[in-house]
Queue: 4 jobs
Job 1
Amino acid sequence: MKPFILICLLILSSYTYSEVNSSISSIKRIAHAGGGYQGETYTNSLEALNDNITKGFEWFEIDFSLTKDGHLVCIHDWKHTFEKLFHFETTEKPSLETFQFLVKQVSPYHVCTLDDLRIWLKKHPKAKLITDVKEDNLGALAMITKHIENFQNRVIPQCYFPENYPKIRQLGYKSIIWTLYRYSGNNQNVIKVIEQWDKLLAVTMPPHRAEAGLGHALLKEGIPSYVHTINTVEELHKYTQEYAITEIYTDFLAPLENTTFLEAEKPLSENPLFLNDCMATYSVDGTLYIPCLSLSDSNQTDVYKVYMQRQSPEFIFKLDLKKIKYNLTK
């Protein structure tokens, strides 16, 4: 008889997301500041966009600041981030021309301008842009409507204050994310506000709001939620499992297309085939890959718990060990 592992896949949450709000299933992971690139964050660069779109990201948050002459460029701030990217301090905003010169001659990255993003979005029709405007949000979003083709379907603006939500809608944007990092109201105020809105895509929050229960409250309202910025698998599981957060902004945790992540716990038997922090993937074509599986000398059946995100109902299947890719690392 061939040895096999009996694996029980248990639902993470008692909520059935598709029954609560169909929009939740369409929510995608967001690459923060274009996503991390070669270990660096906040580059907002073409290199980051090109690298992370190959890793499965389709939604990209980009930071926007205004130059001295009123043009939008992709930089978080003119102090710390500017110094990090260009290796010197500045006492004033540069003009667009100076910014482009510095990008070409000084920065190791091609930090985007709005025109760069327009061209890049044309080359990547599935990609969407999530804005994080650091000053004059309404003015910047109006500028974007004139520069980005089909902006209604390609750009998801972030709203910072409730009074600006209808104004952003009036600009023609179809999908809006309310991000809370500038909002001073409590979680109860958040729920009261969104009850008056329609077509809100999601609410984004810092970790402390999630830990205070806002994700659960939003789920009851049928509103998807994000938390930022999450860069470890442990944090991902903590916020999606324990705090009912739908998805994350991240620098480095790439979404693999058509792949569900499984986290293997310590085996229920005494024979520890799985190493600590083993991460397996189960794809829709039926392939299970357990990269840190080591084999036992025994032909006995061992039972393991693994958690699978947003899959229902609970089910059990058998695996032939001879068909599993594995290594013997201990």
Note: Confidence is low (pLDDT under 50) at residues 1-21, 257-330.
Job 2
Amino acid sequence: MALTDRLPLELTQFEMNPALTEWVASLLQANKDLLNQVKLDVIKIQQAEQKSQLDATVIQQAAKQAKLDETKIQALILELAYYRRIRFANKSEQFTAEQRELFEESWSSDTSALDAEIEQSAALSSADVAPIKRKGAGRQPLPSHLLRIEHRHEPESCTCGQCGKDLVKIGEDITEQLDVEPARFFVHHHIRPQYACQSCETITAAPIPAAIIDGGMAAPGLLTWVMVSQFMDHLPLYRLEQIAARSQVPLARATLAQYQFMASPPL
């Protein structure tokens, strides 16, 4: 295809020298090629910029990962040093060489004192020493201060089953058993008869017995049981409530707490 065929339509309307026309066409083609090359260069530059941005992002992520890895490595190094110190380092009870030198003099004096004491003990042990009596193992006797309730078990007949003669007492076989009486609730029924004088019309009655809690129904024994169970046996109030409920005695925890407060001495 000739260059004149590639001229713009506007230029073909003019009658120009063929050489000039050929030059203009070549100039236009060169400009077009240059424009295409510029477009290609712009595309390459944009691609290079995108690649550089992607590389920068990758580099930034790699830097963050490297920093994270470095932090993990430092933590592992510290942990390894800690376990090495636990496994191989000197314990707190052990002395270093410098610390041993500080106590050498006192150790030597203490050692000589111990040797002298050992020699003295050996000399004393060579003499006749009375053996120490130890308590024999086995069942210990029951305390003597406890109340003894006697239960006598006599034979059905005081006559001999072989010959029919009267039996003669020759001794007793005594055995003891330890028993306990659980908390037993009972009521003090106070009766105060009232007497009147017909001549002077006066009424006489015995005074009301003194009580720890005025107007309360708790007797000293009940208050003592609550305080001892709470502060010496460490039983909570709900357990005391359950113990009373087994005997069909309603004692609420609030009532027991009030007993404790009112029976305690003022601070």
Note: The beta strands are 194-197, 202-205.
Job 3
Amino acid sequence: MTCPRCGIEIKDEQAVCLQCGTLLTKNIIDDKRNSKKFHYTTKLGLIILVVFIIVCLLVSNEIRYKNILSKITTIENIKVDEIHNINNLYKSDGRHYKYILDDRQKEIYIKLLNSVKNFDNEIEINTDKIKYPSEYLLKVFDAINMDHPELLQLGSFKISEVKVNSRIIHINYVLTKEENQKAVTETEKLIETIKNDTKDMNNYDKSKHVYEYLSKNNTYNTNDNIMGMSSYSALNGKHEPNHLGYSKASQILLQNLNINSIITIGLINNKTYSWNLVNLNNKYYYFDVPISSYDKEEIRYAGFLKNSQSYSYIYIKLIPRIKNKY
């Protein structure tokens, strides 16, 4: 501390200033000591408060995150409502519709989904007061693709015309109504065959069977061709699916074998990419068939039940942190 009269530095235990002779009372000494103690305590308290706030935020986010996962991981409890009822190939709980879209996007989702059901070619969407309409609509397109792999007829959505306060959405189909009916029947038979082939297997072996089936019967098309975006392209085996076609087909087959899984869309090497996450024994694993399907002669298991740091998620709220690999 310093002398209150001359300002020279003095020791805490001194009673008199050796420079000017000022008597240092006990109160002055105690005040200085208490001042130091107060500043130290305040700093420590602020540090503790900041740490506490950070921990609370992390815990709160983790609880919210786990609550979302708990709602989408039980196949037995999926209740298909009128909005999401398409056919018998897949039970959709509308998880992306529920958890990644706002109210206005949900309205657009329902309009688009009904248009696909009816094989409508175009639909006009009101985009008034939407700041970035293309990005806004892209989330709806992704949600439909991830929620409804059973839409065998669906190729892609495309914004074909831009108006002042609206967008014209063109829907590309890969199957006609008649072809789609035949494809659904064909896929139902395939599902029954795979169920019979795997009836005595555990979930790990069932997952492996699906991975190997899709790998052996397809060749990965790295281009975003419209046919390759349909799950039918991978289920049928006569077309070359891209990443979206594989993930949709995987989702249909895995669910029909009572294996919990999620379709997600993200980035890999800065390109849009779709894959699956499979839940086995309450742990999630990457399930990425295209890695194996460059060559039908050899199955590579680099995408089977792995963890990886190369995947970047777009819809992070739905995606568990993958730290596991078999």
Note: The first strand starts at residue 122 and ends at 126.
Job 4
Amino acid sequence: MVRGKCPELVARLEQQTTPVANWCSQHAQTIKDTAHSWVGFVELDDASVWLKVFRPKGLAQQFSMRLGRHRALRSFNSANNLLKAQLPVPLPIACLQVGGEMLLVTKRLPQGGDLLSLWQSQGEHLPAAIWREAGSVIGQLHRAGFVHGDCKWSNIYRAHDQHYLLDLEAVARVGVGASVAYRDVARFVLNAEDMGASSGILQTFLTAYACEVDSSIEEVSIATLPQLKRLRQRHERKYGRRGHILLQD
């Protein structure tokens, strides 16, 4: 199964008899290696590309791969759809099935960092533009009729004064103004609460988001709260109580 084109990488992988993640760890720069995925980048003759290997979590994912419904394919297709809508995402190059694993290939983004990493290194010293542009890009996504589905700080990447949306496997089309879109806002706010961010950061984010979706901060806050309360409860069950409340009735 191949979507897109990456002939040089395909030629290299066709010679392999070991899992694709093994080849990647030997020939590419590793960024993350977990039980369920490997992420890194490699220099090809014509491009520097990001690689993400999706290791099957169980029989259900192996079956979905055979049916062409794997999350790597969803991410590849979503990236193409968002690009058509002129939304900022890494350029999708190819999606390959190699043995029992799926490999997603995207153009490597310029040097930068996801919002979580930037926060952990700089905290409140980050410029307000970071949070304003985060609100704008999520608002643009929703105004185009899409939701992200996992809009946490680590899935928003900043480089060269541009925000990019990452991990697109849960992206879905929705009607403009759909209530489910506020789950993205709630997920972002939950991260802000968890990290102990200031109310000023939240206000900057919400102001920019509300402007993009032609709403008010009050209307956005009211629509976000039910989703946020559910996420808080689930988060607390999993991790215990952390951070502080920023958005409330």
Note: The CA atoms of residues 36 and 55 lie 5 Å apart.
